[in-house]
Amino acid sequence: MTSTTLFGVSVPGDKVTGIAAAVAELNPRPRGQRWSSLSACVLDAVWSIGARYNAVVGPLVHRVLSEGASGPLLTPGPPVEDVYPLDRFADRFPDEEALLAVAQNRQRTSTRNGITKAQAVLGYVRVLRDHGVDDIAAANVAMSSPPLLASLDKGLYRIRGEGKYGIRRGYFWMLCGDDARVKPDRMVLRWLEPHGVRDPHVAQQLLIDVAAFMTREGSTPVTPWEVDHAIWLAARNGTSA
Asked: Per its UniProt entry, which superkingdom is the organism in (predicted)?
């Protein structure tokens, strides 16, 4: 069997085939609704790690941004315009306490020496704006510019609690519209564990390979985002691999 390598780890082809069959049973689907604001992408990416999405994250994003948004926060396709750009966010929330007062959530990025997620959000906003990325359109331009993207990732990496695997950053770019990224968080790893996959780096390469295999063997393209999201939904609903 052939294998692929990323981050110095190898993923056997037979493992890809087996997991692809399991993912196919989950019926991965293209994106549905997505955020129409870069501010929403930042809030979602920072607060989602280690938090219940439907009970905590989604309501928090709406609570923070509904007042002041120039249109619906969710859109059925790529947003035409950003309804809450970062300059508006920075004006309304100049410091941690201002954001905490509306977010009503003091979770931290890590249980060990982590900062509040509100602080991390402001860190994201600062790094993005320092690079001239203020809205969804600018974020998509950044994703197509490797030097700019590398500089952004370097800045975001320095935010305390970001973690060594880059899961939050990867998820942020997924939310901005990158279908080639995956987010091997604890939910995805929980689903993959019966297949012997526990390392986020291995999981990252594996999901990319699974999407490529399903695209090659199937009748329609399957993106890494679709594979990741199908697994995440299954894990959230208690479905095992």
From this structure: Bacteria
- Enclosing domain of residue 88: 34-176
pLDDT band at 9 (very low <50, low <70, confident <90, very high): very low
Q: Are 178 and 142 in contact (CB under 8 A)?
A: no
Does residue 214 sit in the same domain as residue 157? no
Number of domains in the chain: 2
For tokens 């203020």, what's the residue? 134
Residues 125 and 208 occupy one common structural domain: no
The span from the CA of 76 to the CA of 143, in Å, is 21
Q: Concatenate the DSSP letters of all residues of 69-119 into one string.
A: -SS-SEESSS-SS-SS-HHHHHHH--SHHHHHHHH----BS-TTTPPBHHH
| Coarse DSSP helix, strand, coil percentages of the chain, rounded to the nearest 5 percent | 55, 5, 40
Q: What is the pLDDT of residues 179-209, one digit of tens each?
A: 999 999 999 999 999 999 999 999 999 999 9
DSSP state of 67: T
Among 159, 176, 193, residue at a domain's last position: 176
Is 241 contained in some domain? no
Would residue 8 be called left, alpha or beta, if left means φ above 0 and alpha means ψ between -120 and 50 degrees? left
